[in-house]
Specification:
The protein is mostly beta strands. The protein has a domain at about 45-75. It is about 0% helix and about 25% strand. The strands form two sheets. It has a three-stranded antiparallel sheet, with no helix packed on it. Strands 1-2 form a two-stranded antiparallel sheet. β1 and β2 form a beta hairpin. It comes from Candidatus Daviesbacteria bacterium GW2011_GWA2_42_7. This is Ribonucleoside-diphosphate reductase.
Length: about 80
């Protein structure tokens, strides 16, 4: 296919393009089927607070202290 791009400097100044679409599939993935991996949600749910240092929800109570699994901050 043939396309033209007009530059901002002048509407008369154009750049010709030669565009070819190769092996285009309608879904954009080359016809491959994509599936999501299943998750095992049967285990216990671990609750975490927001870390006062980094703000991530990875601030948990372990071994007598509150520790952040993201930044390493601890409060004992």
């Amino acid at each position: 296919q043939f396309g033209v791009i007009k530059t901002e400097e002048s509407a008369a100044e154009t750049i010709p393009l030669n565009l070819t679409i190769i092996d285009h599939q309608e879904n954009g993935w080359g016809g491959e089927n994509m599936t999501l991996a299943s998750q095992d949600n049967s285990g216990p749910v671990k609750m975490a607070d927001l870390c006062p240092e980094c703000g991530n929800a990875t601030f948990v109570f372990e071994e007598g202290c509150k520790k952040c699994h993201s930044c390493g901050y601890s409060a004992c």
